[in-house]
Amino acid sequence: MSAMPLADIMPGVAPSDLIGVTGAAAGIAVATTLVGVALLKALSRQSMGKQLIVIVIVTLATSLASCAVVAIWMVEGATDREVILELLSVAGLAGIVVAIFLARAFNRASRTLLSAVQEVGASGAFSPPAGALPAELAGLSHGLVLAHNQLGKSRARERALETSRRELVAWVSHDLRTPLAGLRAMAEALEDEVVIDPREVSHYHTQIRRETDRLSSMIDDLFELSKIHAGALRLSPRLVGLEDLVAEVVLSTEPVARAKGIRLAGSAIRGVPVLIDTPEMGRAVRNLVTNAIRHTPPSGLVEVLGEIKGGMACVRVADACGGIPPADLPRVFDVAFRGESARTPDPSGAAGLGLSIARGIVEAHSGQIGVRNVGPGCEFVIRLPLARTDVPRASSPVRASGPIQAAR
Known about the structure:
Blueprint: H1 6-9, H2 15-42, H3 48-74, H4 78-118, H5 120-123, H6 135-191, H7 198-229, E1 238-241, H8 242-260, E2 263-268, E3 273-276, H9 278-295, E4 301-309, E5 312-318, H10 354-364, E6 368-374, E7 377-385, E8 398-399
Parallel strand pairs: 2-4
Antiparallel strand pairs: 1-3, 2-8, 4-5, 5-7, 6-7
């Protein structure tokens, strides 16, 4: 299709006039753009409503000025020019009115959101504005709601940690002073020769060794717990079979169970790999088993089971402690919680840090730990991510090291 001559498109318009109009319009556009950029920089700290008005005015000024040039240059007759200019003025005024309306609406919405944010300091809760907000401010409001919820959870965790710290200080002041006082009394009795009978001296020596071992264990638990709370627990994970973890824990705790007359049994599904720090995770599971043995009456049964459930590797430790009151279940993993009212009193005077340490170790492995009342006692469950997805989903359980039962 051949190009149409300019005379056919715009009759009576010379090429030189068109070039002149185009040049004038381009000059006006450049000038108004520079003025607009300068104004926006000057108003960069002002409200977005004012900046919106500047943008609209610059756009309208460029359009109106260009049209005015065309009207003055090309339109013949003063009357026609005046009509065109009046129409352009009316259009410009309408555009400015709309810009002012939008700017006021935006400023009103932003002030409403700011007021809601300022009320957080007084009420402690962020309530998003009830009215409709522009998309940008609505997104900001939603983000503030999420941030406030996260801050609320963080504050709750901080309060819980502070409560745990206070309980830990109270525990240290009591549970460490008591054995220290006994050690001092026995040492003074031996030093002053108040006790001279060989059998009594031997008994004192044995008791001193036991109390020293118990203090050493408490200090180890405190050190481990301090690393967990400080986020300084360093893990060296490697692939380990779930059955190996269960077997190691059962074998290491079997003498404790036998001494108390507890039946201890362990089983696990073969071929289930987990990525764990073996010593640390072994300590966590061992704490659960030791706790179960401690609170299970003689001739009771403690079972350790390794399985897959819900796409995660699970280690279950079930005992016959008689159960835990529902009100105490949420606090079982708190520092120094013993729950003596719920379970058989512990003559060993255990520190009460084992479950807290177990929780810290499991969570450091991106796992979960929980407890519930089941049958004659309670069941602790550790859930760990599987090392890979192509593990067997079902299998008959096999003994981790053969059934282990303590003598009654």
